[in-house]
Amino acid sequence: MSKYKVTFLPDNKEVEVEAGTTLLEAAEKAGILINSLCGGEGVCGEDRLQIIKGKANLDPNTIGFFFKEEIQAGYVLACQTRVEDNLTVMVPPKSRLEKERIVTEGVAITLPVYSEPEKITLPRRPRDPAAFFEPIVTKVYLELPKPTLNDNISDVDRITRELRQKLRFDSFRISLACMQDLAARLRGSEWKVTATVARYFNDVGRVLNIEAGDTSSRSYGLAVDVGTTTVVVQLVDLRTGKVVGVEANHNLQARYGEDVISRMVYACTHGSLDPLHKAVVANINTLTQAIARDKGISLADINAIVAAGNTTMSHFLLGLMPCAIRLSPYVPTATVYPQVYARDLDIDINPQGILETMPSVSSYVGGDTVAGILACGLADRSETSCLIDVGTNGEIAVGNNEWIVCCSASAGPALEGGGARSGMRATKGAIEKIQIMDGQVRYETIARARPRGICGSGLIDAIYELAKNRIIGPDGKFNVSTDNKRLLVEDSDPRYIFAFSGETDTGQAVTLAESEIGNLIKSKGSIFAAIKSLMDYIGMTFDQLNNIYVAGGFGNSLDIRKAIAIGLLPDVDVGKIQFIGNSSVMGARMALLSVPAFEKSISVAKRMTNIELSNYPPYMNEFIAALFLPHTDSKLFPSVRY
Amino acid sequence: MSKYKVTFLPDNKEVEVEAGTTLLEAAEKAGILINSLCGGEGVCGEDRLQIIKGKANLDPNTIGFFFKEEIQAGYVLACQTRVEDNLTVMVPPKSRLEKERIVTEGVAITLPVYSEPEKITLPRRPRDPAAFFEPIVTKVYLELPKPTLNDNISDVDRITRELRQKLRFDSFRISLACMQDLAARLRGSEWKVTATVARYFNDVGRVLNIEAGDTSSRSYGLAVDVGTTTVVVQLVDLRTGKVVGVEANHNLQARYGEDVISRMVYACTHGSLDPLHKAVVANINTLTQAIARDKGISLADINAIVAAGNTTMSHFLLGLMPCAIRLSPYVPTATVYPQVYARDLDIDINPQGILETMPSVSSYVGGDTVAGILACGLADRSETSCLIDVGTNGEIAVGNNEWIVCCSASAGPALEGGGARSGMRATKGAIEKIQIMDGQVRYETIARARPRGICGSGLIDAIYELAKNRIIGPDGKFNVSTDNKRLLVEDSDPRYIFAFSGETDTGQAVTLAESEIGNLIKSKGSIFAAIKSLMDYIGMTFDQLNNIYVAGGFGNSLDIRKAIAIGLLPDVDVGKIQFIGNSSVMGARMALLSVPAFEKSISVAKRMTNIELSNYPPYMNEFIAALFLPHTDSKLFPSVRY
Q1: Sign, CA torsion B600/B606/B612/B618
Q2: More confident of the two residues B592 and B425
Q3: In whole angstroms, what is the distance from residue B221 CA to residue A197 CA?
Q4: To pair with A500 at 20 to 30 A between CA atoms, which of A423, A523, B40, B269?
């Protein structure tokens, strides 16, 4: 097949591609990201490129996107134009997409991020719901005509008349607080104001605020992952979709219990969830203030939050008593949550700012999983995929655009770096990769700092390397007869040293004890048993899955092969497995940036079928069988050899 | 024409009617009120009677309302059955209507009130919007199925699943406050709870409260008329539509100014409407507590308020700054007001209870006028009618089911009994009727008490009688040369004594001064000039009006002939003029009891065309011409002779 060269300007990047490749694919190969909202369907018209040299045919179906002058100047849509010649192509700034990537996330899935925010125009109706850029709160600058005796409609009507032109809502609700001194504000600002408008429900907009002057350049929101162990906050620029900053900290609820069960027991025996509610609010406020201070952003310019968490975390956040979640028949107060003012939860953003909570499916499949399904696109495609979200509770979902079944298993915090002396989150100084060869330990840390502990991906590597080097057996027990200067025994609990105290940032050695390895094996066993049980329940084999998305707070360096080798992930073609990082915060951000995505999350949550593993006897056998490296049934892991 | 006798059982009341009279009319003549929601259109099927003896033909069009057995048993619809024989008719309890009537209201227009509330079933959709009984807040008792592993939907979903069966809403919003300890409340009450649900908007219900047990027998609301001079509160049983009690008091805002203009000046020069807001809230709270205490009703069982007032009053009530209302181009902050929690305005009812405000048309045609239009049915009929609402601001509306034009005129409080030394509201001891004959003054007081002052209807009588007896001239000036022991001159302001100090309850004489008569003439002149101007504007004559509805706080005894004779009302056939009392509180009560009526008020307000009299030069000439008894142009009042 013939090959052609394509040169992209102004970057001057050149790639060689096969005839018939689209310009969109060629650009991707050149590392240039093109703004293609519709995902290459030729319907959004955003991915406009200009052919400078060489011959390329304009697809006649796309003519409607261009003026005559533009066609003569050689404009085409990248996704609908195939390379049949050597080409030189200009990428206009507006067609450019900036990829963003942050420490707590994995790879591959990114939302469109615009390089020229001021040029965004909102179409009246989305074409592709999941990717349509329409933040759940928008600021709109209005220059209103002054009232006259012939046009003396009320101030509110004057504003909504204008908003109806600019936004897709049929009607608007304006809070009383916002109305109360509206008359003076409009007149004091010469009728030039900025309206902050939230999607309320369906076609109803909610006017949160009317500010004097043009404040539309300062519009921010928060995507929050309320994890049982870790809380992550992303501060997002709602004009551009860009993540301005991200911070994470340990969930302060940990003092009331390590997992959701013990925290519910605390709340329900004390008759109050107040301390737990306050703890998670303190998490969010601390993180938000830290980012805002760091980036020089005022809290008053933050008007929206989308929070994703498991059902118990969502209940604690909203102040809903979760006692009926804990015991059979496991009933939450709500699975779809009302839009509330953030101030009503004591969250410090603009006093008129709102908080939406990602919907849950059931007591043990929560908004974090629904967010993950949004993020990986499982519900958008006809092929069947699997999402494995590894957290303190592990959730598994299998399905496609027609059906989704899901389940959850209590995995404990071990794989997130919780519960072990040297365990830590994936932040600076965490060992994220480990290799043991000939008794030598090599490791890599995040930000190449001196080691402070081991994060999830490092722990998976650690177990794999210990087993591979036969320092531990398939049962996770140390071969203590080995003469190894890295092995010491403390309180009859053998412990392996990955970094000696002299190497570390803290002066404490980074180690892993047999008991801690046991917890990690229980965690991976419970996750794998849940995946296996769910597949058996629906009568499918692992090979029938087109994609497996792995989400969780492991850090960025999860080694899929090693995760398979310890028996955490099923032994399928690694090409089918994709690590997507923190899919909860990613889905929350998609909902924050896209009303259709948020609405889709509600419809997805409603059509997910939850399987209660506690009600499914084979699960316990699967769990016991999985407490081995990789598994007691080696036929399940044909590719694994230690 | 032949006549027939109709006997109604079980009352055993007999009337004689002409052939062709409907049974509905015959029952009315017999003093038996039949529940005819649709007003005799044959579409509601509520006015079912059973023919016991005699021959009556069932209208074939109404067959669909009956089962075969009922037809055989002689059931007919009262409004669709004409008397052509002597009949004995049974009135089933469900078909019976109880008429209610209160002191502050006039005659004729009453809402359907049910005698057997427990049998009310809400049809899914109304047939006749204006009269459909569906309170804006409803209590629904629910016995929920307990959750099981096979039915473990969320508590909220369990409730809305049941509510969707019982109410017409498509979806429900539940406040966070209501959700927060819902789980415990449901389980503590064995899943037997009462939901309080408000109409939020369109097809969305708002669950305000979930109470343990069955509290549905205690469901009350308030209809409030926020008048510039007088505030009226009716406490209404939302199960039956019955008015449980009514109280009125002087608007406490009076200390900040007598009319809306001076109160706006106060608020706007002081930069705060807080004292005015608090004053009217104190009015409402005082009245509500008084009725509730008197009737033994808990404030916690009041969950809804509908308030009607002019646009300025509505703004003060809701805390909206009204400064732009006052000056050209007369712009209110809003004309359609948001549903708010009453507690947010410091009104003491159930903390989850809501307040709706009747929509306004413009700065000077307010929710009280819209309520009046609802009450008199002007917007429901094809014939053209006129509503004259006499208050501190007088509002006039002319129109039919296709168009309505309206205007307002500042009338002052004189005709409500304000501003005059002996003026008073229509309460116990007010002189409501006066006759002067041969120098003798005869009067009647409300509740036959010793006189305390004169209310509106008495003042109209007073002026008429003084003029008729030539004690005052057509210019309202006393003929001081008359030797009359009832005439005294104080500060060069002649004053007529209607009741000497010895006759009165207070020990003070009840009198009327020339200056006070001057104010009354200005008031009546401004109202008449407004009516005349509006009719001229639309090019109609008084004769073309089919009905003239007169509303206002005159008391119950307004003498239409005397009101014409002093030139307040146009000189048309008195049969066309109907005094309907306080139509503002009446319309507010209709909206409280009927979601379709409330929704209709919004659509009516939107299609009303407001004529600014201040922008209509002929008005001032009309006003000056009307400062005479009855008028400077006597051809306008051909029937009036003094």
Answers
A1: negative
A2: B592
A3: 33
A4: A523
User: How many Cβ atoms sit within 10 Å of the Cβ of residue A485?
Assistant: 8
Mutation for testing the B interface, residue in A169, A172, A179 having most B CBs under 10 Å: A179
Check whether residue A559 and residue A431 sit in a common domain: no
* Predicted complex ipTM: 0.76
What phi and psi, each to the nearest 5 degrees, are found at residue A50?
Answer: -115, 125
The interaxial angle of helices A514-538 and A618-625, nearest 10 deg, is 140
**CA-based nearest residue to A142, from A119, A129, A126, A158:** A158
d(CA B601, CA A153): 18
In a shared domain, residues B499 and B426: yes
**Half-sphere exposure at residue B67, Cβ-oriented, CA atoms within 13 angstroms:** 3
A496 within some domain: yes
The whole-angstrom separation of Cα B532 and Cα B538 is: 10
Residues A408 and A290 in one domain: no
Phi, psi of A612 (to 5 degrees): -80, 105
Note whether B406 and B458 are same-domain residues.
no
Judgement on whether residues B225 and B196 belong to the same structural domain of the protein:
no
Distance (Å, rounded) from C-alpha B533 to C-alpha B625?
12
What's the residue count for chain A?
642
pTM of the model: 0.77
Residue that is written with structure tokens 């509740």 in the block? B447
Task: Please state whether beta strands A487-490 and A302-309 pair in parallel, antiparallel, or not at all (unpaired).
Answer: unpaired
Q: Hey, is the C-beta of A639 within 8 angstroms of any chain B C-beta?
A: no
The count of other CB atoms within 10 Å of the CB of residue B494 is 21
Does A555 have pLDDT greater than 80? no
Number of domains in chain A: 5
The Cα B333–Cα A405 span in angstroms is 51
Is A555 found in the same domain as A493?
no
Q: Which residues make beta-bridge pairs with B105?
A: B581
- Does A75 fall in a domain? yes
A179 and B338 in contact by Cβ < 8 A?
yes
Radius of gyration of chain B (CA): 26
What is the domain range of residue A504?
A: 422-511
Distance from C-alpha of A259 to C-alpha of B274, rounded to nearest angstrom: 50
Asked if the structure places residue A182 within a domain, the reply is yes
- Residues 144..203 of A with a Cβ closer than 8 Å to B: which? 147-149, 151-157, 171, 173-176, 179-184, 187, 201
Of A173-177, A439-443, B89-93, B185-189, the range with the lowest mean pLDDT is B89-93
In a mutational test of the A interface, the residue from B144, B146, B151, B152 whose CB has the highest number of chain A CBs within 10 Å is B152
| Minimal C-alpha gap between B196 and chain A (Å) | 17
Closest partner CB to A156 (pick from B176, B333, B362): B333
Length of chain B as a residue count: 642
Are A147 and B331 in contact, with CB atoms under 8 Å apart? yes
Q: How far from chain centre, in Å, is Cα B292?
A: 20
Contact across the interface for A333 and B615, Cβ inside 8 Å = no
Q: What is the CATH number of the domain that holds A167?
A: 3.10.20.880
The amino acid at residue A564 is I
CATH code, B78: 3.10.20.30
Total beta-carbon pairs less than 8 A apart between chain A and chain B = 138
Is-contact B451 B510, C-beta < 8 A?
A: yes
pLDDT value, residue B106: 30
Cβ distance of B615 and A149 shorter than 8 Å: yes
Is residue B106, in this structure, part of any structural domain at all?
A: no
Question: Average per-residue pLDDT in chain B?
Answer: 88
Do residues A324 and A436 share a domain? no
Q: How far apart are CA B182 and CA B175, in angstroms?
A: 11
Interface of A with B in 583-612 (CB under 8 A): 612
Contacts of B321 in chain A (CB under 8 A): 180-184
Residue ending a domain, among B511, B529, B547, is B511
Band (A276; pLDDT cuts 50, 70, 90): very high
